[in-house]
# Entry
Amino acid sequence: MLYTHPATNLILNGITRQIVIRLAKEHGLDVIEEPFPYEVLEHADEAFLTSTMVEVMPITEIEGEMNVTLPIGPITKKLKALFKEEAQ
# Structure
């Protein structure tokens, strides 16, 4: 399952984001677009961000109010590979 905040004035609905969401759905992932509190990241199995420059970039550490170390997980790896294929 892939969680993302909906595209609003807080989240840019970029082309990379749109493609990754489409690819996730096409490959059987449920995509939930709803706001979630920052604290949810403490319980995430993995996390990534998307942008034109980095495409799909794993997030391995979150520091600040919480300190979380995350693995580069299978969903991130799969979406990164699928995005690369799509771009070619």
